[in-house]
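Contributing new records

If you add data, match the layout below exactly. Sequence lines come first and carry their own label; structure lines follow with theirs. Keep one chain per record. Anything else will be rejected by the validation script.
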Amino acid sequence: MKTLINSLLAPALLALVACTSAPTITPEQISATDVGPVPGDAEHAKIAAALDLLLKDPRSAEFKWGTPHKDALRTSGRIDAGWEIPVMINAKNGMGGYTGFKQWSFFLINGRIASYQDPRMAKLDLWTSVKQP
């Protein structure tokens, strides 16, 4: 019985804490925030270089760059404003065949890649943080 109560109570408490402690930011606040100039070719090059570590065959990658837009991303209880850059990527898999274009997103803060979202994580709306030296 104690295990049953704990298994029901713990998720409820976690949900309550998550709902009450999360700061919010409005679209108007994001729009008014200075997050630097609109990303361009230099940021595309940084993203392509990062993909060298993430793709099986990065030299085979084909890109369709989306329009960057200001956004906010919550990390470790903080909200950071920056640029989200969507990109469709088609690259070869381990067997040498192209996988088809898949949606990736990269979040830049002050011109540096802070997080990315690959197609698998997008299904869960999760982002992977990037640690910079």
